Records
---
Amino acid sequence: MIPLRLWIRMICTLLILSLISGCWSSREIEDLSLYVGLGIDVGQETKFEKTIAAQGGGYPKEENVTATVQIAPGKSSSQQSEQGGSPSSGKSSYSNEQLTGDSLLQIFRQFALRRDRPLIGHHLKVIVISKDIAKKYGLQQLLDFVLRDNDIRPNCLVLISHHRALDVLTSRDPSRIPAFYLTGITNNSYISNKIMEPVSLAKLDAEMQSGSSFLLQNVLNADGEDKFSGGSIFKAKTTKFIGELSQTDLEALSWIKPKERGGVIKTYSKEGFTVLYEIKKKTTKIIPKVVRGDISFHVKAESEGWLMEDWRAPEKEEKGAYLKELEKDFAKIVDQQIDQMLYKLQHTYKADVAGFRDSIRIHYPKTWKKVKDNWDEVFATVPITYEIKTSIINPGSSTE
């Protein structure tokens, strides 16, 4: 007869083995194609697609959209070139593959006909949409499949390319994966107010569902190098691209948005020398006011920063009246930038991407109910005043 103690040991052993046996439905990562970047361009068939179609390998579709998937790890340059990708010298850390059609879902399923490993979007880092296709179709249309797909994480970054999304997702450095590089640039927003706070897929969906106009970060490309520059404006009702803000406009917008720090202000002394102020801390308050149905806003923004560069002759002291004069000069520069930016938003594009709508919605909910359906048109006529204060709390280190 087997002792009770031995029975207990056998049962415990079986239970432990069942826990460490692994997941029955698991798939090895080597057997998957993880795409980390997605580019959406105006439809333009690749040479590979045209050759296949000529052999009878096509299917009924319109050439509306070209989707680029960036897969990591990549292939050799010859393999990429054969399959309609973007070749680079030698072995690449990624591969770009393209297909054209009128449905993103159908395009993704077509990849199964040319790859031995299925596409998996669990690790998608960035979606790049070209400005040209964003003029033709609203983002609500272009991203409908992406927003419904449970495979794609809602925290992936959304960017707008000035030209083709494929160019932004292509690097001359084979060791660099553009999707990771682009997400890394957003981490620099704490030192530059020319970089917007990252807009994720989830945040973009919330903006579109709320019926508000919104802004997305622009990315430019030249000679295989990417650069963030300005932002693209999308209209509330259509979710289509309607215009752009420059780098300087984004600097001005940061004084209205609740961004705590980051950025520099440049002015010139009376002698014509360059002087730079770096923002270390900033507070912004938007004060809405409604009088007999008339809406107005007043923006109060204060910053503390360091005098980080002064090209004047070194024997001149940097204190007292001179610093006070510089503070006024820096505030004046910001005033000019804000004035230029607000003119574009209110008169050129008639789109509130600065967040004034949230202020009136919170403080005057009854008024908001009356104007929310045509807020952009109301915003275009609303008086906006602003008060900027800059304080130099540290003149910087001295070499004397």
---
Amino acid sequence: MPDSLAHVLLARCEFPPPPTPVACAVSGGADSLALLILAVAAGLRPTAIHVDHGLRVGSADEALMVKDAAGQLGAGFEARTVTVEPGPNLEARARSERYAALPEGVLTGHTADDLAETILVNLLRGAGLDGLAPMRPTGRVSRPLLGLRRRETRALCADVGLTPIDDPSNHDTRFTRNRVRHELLPLLGDIATRDPVPILVRQSQLLGAEANLLDQLAAALDPTDARAMSAAPEVLARRAIRAWLRTTEAEHHPPTAAEVERVLGVVRGNAVACELSGHRRVQRSKGRLTLHG
């Protein structure tokens, strides 16, 4: 129906044109089910991909629920399993294994609420400008639902008669993100006497625009030219070095602030070389910087 909730919400989503085949990461939660519903409504040819971490009893049943939902919606389905060993950083390691099991260009159901939570988590971790900017599209992941709210994905599931899975790990306050979601954001809303999510998203958009401009200016610098880098504004030199080091990292993880500062020390002549993660080394010779390893 033209006036269905799905079609109303589609106006604020960013899907590829129909009938593009797409892979959708679907855990069975409201956000990922809404992603699948909207992909179908957008005229795409989606395949729901469920990744089972095997971290809790009954996780295999969740794959069957997603398969059933995909069948009801007329979408394809694939089940994949990964192994995540118990230990520290469980949440981060599970996320890493999940994305490794998903195909390039997979669509995820991240919403504006997820963006707000990420901004606060990154702020608490001391992230710079890039960490406070919006989640950027990559060749690896696309997030078409960032214009929607979590309450809207739940409403959409109810509208089409699907019951989402409530993952108990989303309420485990041992994880920083969950404390941000269930404690910090409500407290901010109480202090501000308004919903903080749109405020955080708007701030993120403004910072993202500034980050993009700085990237464009930094791209004009040659990070291997010590003289040019020394003469450049420090903020641009940092970004040029960060981009240079990042392109050499297989998984495209950004270098730490400490690593960037060590390279700046080589640029300024305070050291002739410095060591970086991944057994890499930056050296200066005759005014040029080279990266080894």
